[in-house]
Hints:
By secondary structure, this protein is mainly alpha-helical. Helix content is 78%, strand content 0%.
Amino acid sequence: MSLEEQLNQDLKQAMRNKEKLRLSVIRMVKASLQNEAIHLGVNSLSEAEELTILSRELKQRNDSLQEVTDLGRTDLIENLEKEIDILHDYMPQQLSEEELETLIKNTINELGVTSKKDFGKVMGVLMPKVKGKADGSEVQQLVKQQLS
């Protein structure tokens, strides 16, 4: 089942169950997908493009969560956490730290890099492999550890 079909099905279910927050998040994601399709001039997005948009939505909420936490706005934290949980339902299975470390080591060995100067090369090859399956900042930290 495609992401769009899943969203439509979940949208109907959220309406039936009167889940306002889930309904709102699904509508926001659908709007983002539709806006991106219009921007690219296509009828439907590829799976990779859909994943990019989901990742962007998730990152926006994680950034907002960090900001409201820093500001001490406890009234907004719970809502953002729920939205993040809803978005995680549509993301692919996340890589474990062990799987991620193995992937990083293999990529470093494939490229034959040994110094921090080659950080950009490693990230350039690695990020498409882990897109949507791992947080970019976590990948960045692990690559830096491996190269040091």
